[in-house]
Design brief:
This protein is mainly alpha-helical and about 120 residues long. The protein has one domain (about 5-105). It has three helices and no strands. The longest helix has about 30 residues, at about 75-110. The mean pLDDT is about 90.
Length: about 120
């Protein structure tokens, strides 16, 4: 297994572990997450396909570091794993941060420090 394939797989495993074992946002069970992933793929396929097309590539890969499996338009399958990991991590962290902020706001609602006055 090449290094590009290994790091692609590790990135997905790490992101899934962060979500399922630590942050537990539940985002993977929502239709909004999967809709967002479909939208990402809708843009990733033509752009990545144009960048990696074997007929005139703009991005070159060391084939020894990959599986060599490409689909569609010559896109290395590892690119999809990296894309999934990157977007999923961003969404998980966003949801987690939003919920943490909501909890802080709820905990602070109705409590004023000794120097705060009513407006």
């Amino acid at each position: 297994m090449g290094i590009y394939t290994l790091t692609a797989l590790v990135s997905v495993v790490v992101v899934l572990a962060i979500e399922l074992l630590w942050l537990r946002t539940g985002i993977l069970r929502t239709w909004r997450f999967w809709l967002a992933m479909a939208i990402v793929m809708g843009f990733q396929v033509p752009v990545d396909g144009w960048l990696t097309k074997l007929s005139d590539p703009l991005v070159l890969y060391n084939e020894a570091d990959m599986t060599g499996i490409r689909a569609p338009w010559d896109i290395p399958v590892e690119d999809f794993a990296f894309g999934f990991g990157m977007v999923t991590l961003a969404m998980v962290l966003w949801v987690h941060a939003g919920r943490r902020e909501e909890r802080r706001a709820a905990a602070g609602a109705g409590t004023r420090g000794p120097r705060q006055e009513r407006a």
